[in-house]
Amino acid sequence: MSAAAAALRAIPGVRAASGYRRSWLTKDVVAGVVLSTLLVPQGMAYAELAGLPPITGLYTSIACLLAYAVFGPSRILVLGPDSSLGPMIAAAILPLVVAGKDPARAVALASMLAIMVAALMLIGAAGRLGFIADLLSKPTMIGYMNGLALTILVGQLPKLFGFKVSANGLISEISGFFHGLAHGEAVGAAAAVGILGVVVVLALQKWLPKAPAVLIMVLLTIGATSVFNLAEHGVSLVGTLPSGFPPLTIPDVSWSDIGALAGAAAGIALVSLADTISTASAFAARTKQEVSGTKEMVGIGAANLAAGFLQGFPVSTSGSRTAVAERSGARTQLTGVVGAVMITVMIVAVPGLLRNLPQPALAAVVIAASVSLADIPGTLRLWHQRRTEFLLSITAFLGVALLGVLPGIAIAVVLSILNVFRHAWQPAESELGRAPGEHGYRDIAADPVVEHLPGLLIYRFAAPLFFANAATFRDHVSRLSRSEPEPAWILIAAESITDVDVTAADMLEDLDKELASRGIRLVWAELQEGVREKIERYELPLALGPDRRYPSINSAVDAFRAQTGADWCPAPAPPAQEQPDETTSESKSKSA
STAS domain: which residues (predicted)? Predict the structure, then answer.
């Protein structure tokens, strides 16, 4: 095989086409047609959520579906405009649009934002940085999504009731909405259409989950427009969409605009990657596929790049649309290609197909999507299971709700990173003893009937040793060394210590000297080979020399017994401690 053929074969879409089965064709085509009925109203609704003309949502859907079909690794994942990205896009581009009345400039900025997201994705893929999706922990992601759901819901309420509010921020938007209601700005017919639209979608999703809820609601509201002549009752309609297909264009923006969009691009890239990997993992588990963060970054990058050059905006994975495709029988990305073709035919041949669709119906689509973003049961579960994680989630929620979407994602990332450091700074640690009649070892604090060897303390530290927790390790070992009676050996159960950096190595040398001055020997069991090699480069012959290392806890215990003649006896009751914090107690229980 030539190099060119091998490179071509490496493209996911080419590889999938070469192995395509004829028996899949009917299922993929049917699923694509069904999917298109969801893509059109959602694409238009999410475009307006992002502060853009509805037609850009259709351009975006076409571009990203075709690009991901070629470069995306997943068989059925569906990318497109997403409710979680809409507020982030709006927050980034609307402050840069002059007086908010220049849709062409808004489209150019959104398209450049998509290209910047694509560049970040492709650079990340080249550097194999798919793991950065893990920067958003589940509790902070739950809080972020809850805040986003509330922000979207409040922002769409005026549109649902047929009027507009000029406000910035959640509190002012709530105030503006109730002010409009109080002064009679709401349009009764619009409110009826919007509220019934939300009820129809949510009810169908709950009781008939396989039914195309959004499509049914759209058809009902279009029918209501014709029957009740809603336009004459003050209800705004979508109207006829622009006919034809846009040419490939390079967004016309300035360098200062690019600088202003950089932060938003990074946040959107992170949320899109995290959402895509989590959704891909859920669906791949059913088909026994493997998920590669790096390959998904290429697929997302290609989809955003195509959208950016086709007057679109940043995209992400949609769990709901992917579920629709799967339930409809989709087997490959041909489903997305069929969906893109159907949207193209509508734009070119029948641009007036949705002209009687009420604007409140689009608001209903967005509000229904925002409800699905919120995870109240998950939040309550955090409250019952771990209060510290609940507080992280609430902080992320308040960050989005009170400070805005873009500061909210920054807060979510920072909280996740700080949470990682918190766990590494104060990891699970425990003093071990032997369970009577068993060969294993348990946490003395969790199982008071364990036995111990007089003169030997066994200590487990479940984290890599590095600069942030070196002092914590030293303090714990020093506390153990002051036990009564004073130990002769302190044995470190090191199977969970995956690294020792220079700061920790210097700490170990000083700690060993301190303990040795009091006649206490510091020894190690189950030290990993990679850690041992690093330690040898640090030249710590005393603290971690070969005579201090044992392959297992049992071998170290046997050596101690042979040297001292000690025998197992009931462990003394652990000393009372002052109100240990919740996290440490939970960690100890888990380590046991």
Answer: 446-560
Average pLDDT over residues 51-61: 95
Domain that holds residue 265: 3-351+360-366+397-418
361 burial (CB, 10 Å; 0-12 / 13-18 / 19+) is: buried
Residue 452 and residue 411 share a domain: no
**407 lies in the same domain as 431:** no
The CA-atom distances, in angstroms, between 519 and each of 369, 490, 516, 522 are 67, 11, 5, 10
Residues 17 and 76: beta-carbon distance below 8 Å: no
> What DSSP line would sit under 500-559, residue for residue?
B-HHHHHHHHHHHHHHHTTT-EEEEES--HHHHHHHHHHT-HHHH-GGGEESSHHHHHHH
- Count, residues in the chain: 592
Number of domains in the chain: 2
Give the torsion sign (CA, 377, 382, 387, 393).
negative
- 3-state secondary structure string across 66-133: HHHHHHCCCCCCCEECCCCCHHHHHHHHHHHCHHHCCHHHHHHHHHHHHHHHHHHHHHHHHCCCHHHH
Angle made by CA atoms 390, 393, 396, in degrees to the nearest 5: 150
Report helix, strand or coil for 480.
Answer: helix
C-alpha of 527 from chain center: 34
Q: Identify the burial level of 385 via C-beta atoms within 10 angstroms of its C-beta, where 0-12 means exposed, 13-18 middle and 19 or more buried.
A: exposed
The answer to whether residues 121 and 144 belong to one domain is: yes
Q: Are residues 466 and 323 in the same domain?
A: no
Average pLDDT, the chain: 87
183 vs 573 pLDDT, higher one:
183
Cβ-in-10-Å burial (0-12, 13-18, 19+) of 414 comes to middle
Do residues 431 and 299 both lie within one domain?
no
Q: What is the per-residue pLDDT across 239-293, written as a single tens digit (0 to 9) for each?
A: 998 888 888 899 999 999 999 999 999 999 998 998 888 788 777 766 667 778 8
* pTM confidence score: 0.78
Helix residue ranges, H only, 183-239:
188-207, 213-228
Lowest mean pLDDT among 26-40, 78-92, 280-294, 499-513: 280-294
Residue 534 forms part of a structural domain = yes
d(CA 348, CA 243): 6
| CB distance 237 to 357 below 8 Å | yes
Residue 433 phi, psi dihedral angles, 5° rounding: -140, 175
pLDDT tens readout for residues 114-168? 999 999 999 999 998 887 777 778 888 899 899 999 999 999 999 999 999 988 7
Alpha helices of 288-386 — where are they, by DSSP H? Answer: 293-309, 319-327, 334-349, 359-373, 376-385
8-state DSSP, 141: H
> Do 29 and 165 belong together in one domain?
yes
